[in-house]
TrEMBL record:
<dbReference type="GO" id="GO:0016779">
    <property type="term" value="F:nucleotidyltransferase activity"/>
</dbReference>
<keyword id="KW-0808">Transferase</keyword>
<keyword id="KW-0548">Nucleotidyltransferase</keyword>
<protein>
    <submittedName>
        <fullName>Molybdenum cofactor cytidylyltransferase</fullName>
    </submittedName>
</protein>
<keyword id="KW-0460">Magnesium</keyword>
<dbReference type="InterPro" id="IPR029044">
    <property type="entry name" value="Nucleotide-diphossugar_trans"/>
</dbReference>
<dbReference type="InterPro" id="IPR025877">
    <property type="entry name" value="MobA-like_NTP_Trfase"/>
</dbReference>
<dbReference type="Pfam" id="PF12804">
    <property type="entry name" value="NTP_transf_3"/>
</dbReference>
<feature type="domain" description="MobA-like NTP transferase">
    <location>
        <begin position="26"/>
        <end position="212"/>
    </location>
</feature>
Amino acid sequence: MSRDASILASMQLKPINLSKPPNHAVIILASGLSLRLGQAKQLLCKDGEPLICFMTKLALSTKPQAIIIVIPDNQPSIASAMDELAFQYSMIQMVVNSTPEIGMAYSLNLAIEAVTQLTSSLIERVVIMGVDQVLLDEQHLAKLLADKRSVVASAYSSWQYSNNMNLNETSAATALKQNIIGLPLTIDYDLLREWQALLVGDKGLRYLIRELKPSQISTVVNHQLSYDIDTPEQLAYAKQQGWLDK
């Protein structure tokens, strides 16, 4: 066998692995106090498990390097609900927000700080998601991660239950406001760090996203994300539809 043929044979015996390791982290903002709902939305049940666990498993499906979950202080039942998953997956890190009442921006700041403390230097993007969009699925998260623009956000309508509407009539129970750009979203890690100092009070990322050039942002439309749970009426409707356990 010639020298060139030997080299080729060696290359065939040792195929090159072209798969790229995961290069993103996930932040789950779950420190809300659920004041309008009157109970912890993190502990509502979907498919037999607390909603916070269901959402964490969705995050795990994206194969991230780390999952940072921000939860409120003095809520031991929420922390306990995550014990088994956190023990099973070392990539899960719980961050406690001692002052959740001051707004979402502080929760996001805590999560960003946690991401910066990770030993891995491979993180290029961050997925940011909430805990109460009960129809979120793996396919939507995969679409967000497939696009590599600076920000890839979800686009959907909002819904608001009205007491004088019949819950059996979906169209009547849903008041639509178009063109909401929000969570979940993916964002370049460097851009998120740049924006960190601008996150104040209850102002999240939306007003910063609006200032991006069109070439820097894209959206994935999914009107199922309209259905989040903020009020007892919305909870009752979600249970009636089978989106949450009764």
